[in-house]
Amino acid sequence: AQNGEALIVSFDAEPPREAKDKLRDLGLRWNSFRREWQGYAKKSLLEKELQGFEATIESVE
Predict the structure, then answer these.
(1) Which residues of the chain have pLDDT under 50?
(2) Which domain holds residue 29?
(3) How many domains does the chain have?
């Protein structure tokens, strides 16, 4: 897809506001039921933006 791939981002503990703002800015949304962020983005960009935040980034097939 032009806007990236389907991704899920999760954290072991609640991330700081700075990380949440980056996720929102990149177009991801919080799923309160699954307690994870999800949306379409470029994985390499997400990894770069979330460096140092201990995020787990998974691709969804």
Answers:
(1) none
(2) 5-59
(3) 1
